[in-house]
Amino acid sequence: MKVRKSIRNVLLGGLAMASTATALQAEEATDFNQVGKQMSIMLQNRHYDRMPFDDELSQRILKLYLNDLDYGKLFFTQEDVDMLAKKYGNELDDLMIKAKSMDVAAEVYELYQKRVHERIAYANDLLKKGKFNVDSDATMKRARRDMDEPTLKGWPADKKASDELWTKVIEEAYLSEVLRRKTIETRAKEQGKDNPLKDEKPINEKLALRYERILHAADEVDSEDIADYLLSAVAKAYGPHTDYFSAREMDRFMSGMNNGFVGIGALLQAEDDGATKIMGVVVGGPADKGGELKLNDRIIAVDPLNSGEMVDIMFMKIDKVVDMIRGKEGTSVRLKVEPADGGEPKFIVIERGKVEMKDEFAKGQIIESKKEDGVAQRIGVITLPSFYADFKTGEVRCSEDVRVLLERMNEEEVDGLILDLRGNGGGSLDEVRRMTGFFTGAGPVVQVKDYLGRIDMKSSFQKAIFDKPMVCLIDKASASASEILAGALQDYNRAVIIGTSSTFGKGTVQQPMDISRMMPFFAKRDRAGYLKPTIQKFYRVSGSSTQKKGVEADIVLPNIMDALEIGEDKLYYPLAHDVIRKAPGYTSEPREGLFIANLKGGSVKRLAENKDFQYIVEDVNRMKERIEKNEVSLNLKEREKELAEVETRTKERNKERIERFAKMEKQDKSLYTFYRLNLDDVEAKELQKMDPTKDDDSYMRRSEDDDKDLDTTPEWPTRLDPVKRESMAILSDLIELTTRAKMAGVNNE
Questions:
Q1: Distance separating alpha carbons of residues 542 and 536, to the nearest angstrom
Q2: In what helix (H) or strand (E) does residue 362 lie, and over which residues does it extend?
Q3: Neighbour count for residue 624 (Cβ, 10 Å)
Q4: pLDDT of amino acid 482
Q5: Are 230 and 10 in contact (CB under 8 A)?
Q6: For residue 303, what is the enclosing H or E element?
Q7: For the residues of 39-66, what is the DSSP string, one character each?
Q8: Could you give the percent of the chain with pLDDT greater than 90?
Q9: Burial of 383 (0-12, 13-18, 19+ CB in 10 A)
Q10: How wide is the angle at C-alpha 638 spanned by C-alphas 637 and 644, nearest 5°?
């Protein structure tokens, strides 16, 4: 376990602050000054934009560094920021190249820690006094983030202004908690249930614990953390997806790509009082097999090596706790746990093992529906959360998983396919290239261009294995590799794209590079980390970049995401959108073959009659107005009025939905038959029928919120959300139109 130097201890001891850079570098093997220098050289030589290290870049780095450290502009003062800008605004580029950047990183972070201590002390003083003005006409901003690009403005002018801001921050937090508790208490009373919050700590005490966690997070740093903060800002000055990964971050990244890791198989959550709560247990994982660790148990200490030396983890950052619990397969970790049932603390030893997050794997379903003519129509559904792959062994590949699902769907003679890419943030380029061919056949999939303007075409050499009509679902969280697949399906006129107005708009390629390989031979490099620079841009086979623009839906369905600040164009310093020539060899099926105008017309009629989409449109308009206003009242009566309006609207909607959903559920039972087709089912002789309202194919048992039982919002009938239900209707229309066209073609012949 690393020894951690706390600035807080120095401050409370009344001593002058020592150089954090000197103190912390003595603890670590890696020379992060050299890491910064080599990273600077790599950025200038490897990044797509090849921006020089100059004063303009230096100012950009400082803006990002301060904004990332103090995201809400709550801790620094404008005096602090102006001082740092004057001192380092034009110097960071030179200091990076000269391998002298870590002294600056330490100085800035020390100042940040100092301000965190001052602000939390002020907050605690207000909470102890417990007197809040809830009758004023005061307001505060909901969000304090700079919109177009980070600036060095917007912080409170000085200590006095900071005190005034934090008075509002505490008052708003107090009001929000008062209203939350009142809402839950009222709901419990209306439903004749016990108040689940009756034993909660007093509001002031709960808020004090919340700020205590912020304090510990600021103090709980080592040299790797401090270097990470600055080097990440340096990388992001080149664009939002260029990044620096510390050694521990790279380990997490690789685990995420293959949907597996070595650990105990538990989902952790940081609690306000400092403990770490068990919110989920992976079915069949080490913790589940051991049987001792239960949902809602609270971990308070960890012995990573099961050596008898427990480490207190109270208020420790959740990622650090995770790192301590994970380890090598076959080794054991010892946990000190407060049981959920309130018993005495106990020790639990769990042997680590490989944990597969099967919820993140591709999964399928077949929905059979009865048509008016009595003929059954079978629709296949594949949900793909990410383009995962195990780069080390190649044993885990999403393209292979999708292939076996498609082949089984062919055996089951499905009439069409819904490919659900909602929330899919991307992943392996090789996997998406291979997978595209399953639907389009061999041919160009995507083009990539480097900084010299050289264009490389990436093709699929796969034979098409699915040729039935299909639709592809997208949303604003569909990014990168998802946009390559959706864009290719659209360019080849192979699928109808349905969802939000467009996808995320990430049209750039990043490549992790080991910084240690570039460092001088005798330099200390054990945990140098990785630079992940943008090296290329994606272009669709039609020639349009997905950068900033994304893939635009053929049929747009109302979605709250279209009201939120989500997308590449909302990030700082994104690369521009542009267009190149079409990919050589690219040819597509006629656009008319998808009957977009007909499908859109039918969808518009259904949406006009669909209450759920009408509700979404209302919510989108309210959300846009709220974001535009960017203001929250600090008046209790005003907030109670707003909350009452929300509660009334929710109750009215729920009343209407409960009655309507009951009819839909009954209708669905007579209309649909569901068959589960996950990866575990592809070899089964016969697919098992399932009841979507009862069948739980989740691979993790999860803890529920205390107040969830009070939420009377009904689940979607047959667990078909409005988007999925409308996509089924669109696909059904597409199948029918395609069949008619083929029949007409045969008759004409």
A1: 17
A2: none
A3: 13
A4: 97
A5: no
A6: strand 298-303
A7: HHHHHHHHSTT----SHHHHHHHHHHHH
A8: 78
A9: buried
A10: 85
Find the angle CA(135)-CA(137)-CA(143) to the nearest 5 degrees: 115
What beta strand segments (E) does 371-500 contain? Answer: 376-383, 416-420, 443-449, 455-460, 470-474, 496-499
What is the model's pLDDT at position 747?
Answer: 43
Average pLDDT, the chain: 90
pTM value? 0.90
Q: What phi, psi does 339 have (nearest 5°)?
A: -65, 150
Q: Residue 164 — pLDDT band, cuts 50, 70, 90?
A: very high
> Which ranges of 52-192 does DSSP label H, i.e. alpha helix?
55-69, 78-88, 92-97, 101-129, 159-190
Q: Are 548 and 507 in contact (CB under 8 A)?
A: yes
Buried b (16+ CB within 10 A) or exposed e, 366-376: bbbbeeeeeee
List, for residues 532-562, the tens digit of each pLDDT value.
999 999 999 999 999 999 999 999 999 999 9
Can you give the pLDDT at residue 260?
Answer: 64
Percent helix, strand and coil across the chain, each to the nearest 5: 45, 15, 40
CB-CB contact of 458 with 447 (8 Å) = yes
| d(C-alpha 203, C-alpha 250), whole Å | 39
Q: Is the pLDDT at 443 greater than 60, yes or no? A: yes
User: Side by side, which strands form the sheet with 443-449?
Assistant: 455-460, 443-449, 534-539, 508-510
The pLDDT of residue 13: 24
Tokens 């090598």 locate to 328
- Name the more confident of 526 and 123: 123
Q: How far is CA 322 from CA 251, 392, 734, in A?
A: 12, 22, 47
Q: What does the block give as tokens for 149?
A: 């690009």
